[in-house]
Amino acid sequence: MKHNMKLNNEPFELIENGSKKIELRLYDEKRRKLKVNDLIEFTNISTEKKMTVLIEALYLYPNFEELYKHFDKISLGYDKDALASYHDMEEYYSLEEQNKYGVVGIKIKKVD
Question: Would the pTM count as exceeding 0.70?
């Protein structure tokens, strides 16, 4: 199955260049449909460029604080010199949403 998701320019480019390996999302109704070996077509919000990735694994956590404990910051999309904080995800998903749905780390590999 193929899923469609939008991405900001920076994470899109990090996935495209191979450094970002885990996409972070709320585990809401849309993301509960994801399965290993499904495809995701990401659309860059800034450029409308598209890229397809394969879902290699799904990692479920109650919140981003727990998820961040299990992955290195490079695979999550940070530069090696950047301070990685799970609070960064609160810009996109409130604590209330995280508590309601949980979160998912989507291990991905570019296929095109």
Answer: yes
For residue 112, give the nearest of 49, 35, 47 by alpha carbon: 49
Q: Is 99 exposed, middle or buried (0-12, 13-18, 19+ CB in 10 A)?
A: exposed
CA distance 4 to 38: 11
Token pair for 1: 């199955």
Contact 105, 98 (CB under 8 A): no
What are the tokens at 31?
């993301």
- Within 10 angstroms of residue 19's Cβ, the number of other Cβ atoms is 15
| 27 token code pair | 């585990």
Task: Please tell me the distance from the alpha carbon of residue 76 to that of residue 108, in angstroms, as a whole number.
Answer: 11
CA distances from 73 to 11, 23, 76, 78, 98 (A): 13, 12, 5, 5, 20
Reported as a single tens digit per residue, the pLDDT across 4-48 is 999 999 999 999 999 999 999 999 999 999 999 999 999 999 999
